[in-house]
């Protein structure tokens, strides 16, 4: 349908202009960001480029509404970040493990925070029987969380309340998954200033709910997951 007959139909030119506008806004945003920081502190980027020593690792959802720095009112350099769909921590994910190992053993972060959020599309999708494509393989991890807690979840009749609870249970299980890694457990054997926490960001209010599942030892894990220290091989 031609545009002159229906002004609501976007032409190829309109689409290209909108595309360029979104892209240009990002570059303009960067210019404003640099200008603003330099106005506050002319040496800002000089200092930032000298190195990083964040005290926090944030493992959150890729959802565009839950950015680690804005949610915690922190600045560049303060939070090391890993994000994936529905903040899942799987012990075979080399990406997550690399981020965890580097932040715990090299940067020596003090706090690892798994941050889920209410209204998580990944969690909502995992509660359905629909196929979404490749992502179904990733969402399987959340379906496993559902199965672990189905006795509780199946009793919740309101779908919204049930989804919110699965968001919380997913965070709790991912906290435990982190605590089961040799990376966290070996760090605990060496130092006492490392804690793993579980949070949910309520995107309806912006506020964080601390799920109070913070761990700094293996006490809350089933015995089979609490690993002994590696002893040097006998010669
Ligand atoms: Zn999400």
TrEMBL record:
<dbReference type="GO" id="GO:0034599">
    <property type="term" value="P:cellular response to oxidative stress"/>
</dbReference>
<feature type="binding site">
    <location>
        <position position="61"/>
    </location>
    <ligand>
        <name>Zn(2+)</name>
    </ligand>
</feature>
<dbReference type="GO" id="GO:0015976">
    <property type="term" value="P:carbon utilization"/>
</dbReference>
<dbReference type="InterPro" id="IPR036874">
    <property type="entry name" value="Carbonic_anhydrase_sf"/>
</dbReference>
<comment type="similarity">
    <text>Belongs to the beta-class carbonic anhydrase family.</text>
</comment>
<dbReference type="GO" id="GO:0008270">
    <property type="term" value="F:zinc ion binding"/>
</dbReference>
<feature type="binding site">
    <location>
        <position position="117"/>
    </location>
    <ligand>
        <name>Zn(2+)</name>
    </ligand>
</feature>
<keyword id="KW-0456">Lyase</keyword>
<dbReference type="GO" id="GO:0004089">
    <property type="term" value="F:carbonate dehydratase activity"/>
</dbReference>
<dbReference type="GO" id="GO:0005737">
    <property type="term" value="C:cytoplasm"/>
</dbReference>
<protein>
    <recommendedName>
        <fullName>Carbonic anhydrase 2</fullName>
        <ecNumber>4.2.1.1</ecNumber>
    </recommendedName>
</protein>
<dbReference type="Pfam" id="PF00484">
    <property type="entry name" value="Pro_CA"/>
</dbReference>
<keyword id="KW-0862">Zinc</keyword>
<dbReference type="GO" id="GO:0071244">
    <property type="term" value="P:cellular response to carbon dioxide"/>
</dbReference>
<dbReference type="InterPro" id="IPR001765">
    <property type="entry name" value="Carbonic_anhydrase"/>
</dbReference>
<feature type="binding site">
    <location>
        <position position="63"/>
    </location>
    <ligand>
        <name>Zn(2+)</name>
    </ligand>
</feature>
<dbReference type="InterPro" id="IPR015892">
    <property type="entry name" value="Carbonic_anhydrase_CS"/>
</dbReference>
<keyword id="KW-0479">Metal-binding</keyword>
<feature type="binding site">
    <location>
        <position position="120"/>
    </location>
    <ligand>
        <name>Zn(2+)</name>
    </ligand>
</feature>
């Amino acid at each position: 349908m031609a545009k002159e007959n229906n002004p609501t139909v976007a032409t190829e030119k309109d689409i290209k202009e909108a595309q360029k506008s979104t892209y240009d806004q990002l570059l303009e945003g960067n210019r404003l960001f640099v200008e603003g920081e330099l106005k506050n502190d002319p040496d800002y980027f000089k200092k930032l480029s000298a190195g990083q020593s964040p005290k926090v690792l944030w493992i959150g959802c890729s959802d565009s509404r839950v950015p680690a720095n804005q949610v915690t009112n922190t600045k560049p350099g303060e939070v090391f970040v890993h994000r994936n769909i529905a903040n899942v921590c799987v012990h075979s994910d080399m990406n997550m493990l690399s981020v965890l190992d580097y932040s715990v053993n090299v940067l020596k972060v003090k706090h690892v925070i798994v941050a889920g959020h209410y209204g998580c599309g990944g969690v909502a999708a995992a509660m359905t029987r629909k196929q979404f494509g490749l992502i179904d393989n990733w969402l399987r991890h959340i379906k496993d969380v559902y199965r672990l807690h189905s006795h509780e979840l199946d009793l919740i009749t309101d779908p919204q309340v049930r989804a919110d609870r699965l968001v919380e249970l997913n965070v709790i299980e991912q906290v435990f998954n982190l605590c089961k890694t040799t990376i966290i457990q070996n760090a605990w054997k060496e130092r006492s200033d490392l804690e793993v926490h579980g949070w949910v960001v309520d995107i309806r209010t912006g506020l964080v709910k601390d799920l109070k599942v913070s761990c700094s030892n293996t006490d809350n894990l089933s015995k089979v997951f609490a690993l002994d220290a590696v002893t040097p091989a006998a010669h």
